Amino acid sequence: MNRNAVRPPRYRGFTLVETLAVIALLAVVAVMATPSFVSWHVRDQVDARAKALASTLAYARSEALRRGARVTVCRIDAARHCLAAGQPCGNGVADWSCGWAVLAERGGALSLLRAQPLLAAVSIAGTQTNLTFTPPAGQLIGTFRSFDIAPRAPSKATQGDKWRRCIRIAAGGRARIVEGACGAAS
Fold first, then answer.
1. In whole angstroms, how far apart are CA 26 and each of 14, 31, 114?
2. Which residues of the chain have pLDDT under 70?
3. Staple 14 to which of 6, 18, 97, 107, CB 3.0 to 4.6 Å?
């Protein structure tokens, strides 16, 4: 036989059955992984919001020390105006997830130093009154305060204390984040 004879082409690649099997396997993995991804995202939002609030409280305290003036942290609406205790923001929520602002008192007027926008996916329950830090030590007017931060719409996958954070504020004005609900032992 002639070695130079033309051979029929050999096709390489995957068959239709192999391709469909891989697609079906990927679909099953995606369906099984989605709840875990959503849960991870919710916990990340809770952690981020807790850190943002604790950072804001530390900033307000340090500004009261630096400026030698009262610095207030209050819940705000979309126009960045302080909300009265119990007054809901635009989405009807009456907790700190509306957002908050840091305001410095100067000559009887308040000036905006920093603002944090709305994040409706996370519930921040706590005191409904403004928090005012005073010089010279940056103490908080009032007693111990706490904020309970949790997913707004908890699902079966996001139940329990590991999905919640508590910010505890001492009368001296220092805030700390604790894993779990505020009512849980720490």
1. 16, 9, 45
2. 1-5, 143, 154-158, 184-186
3. 18
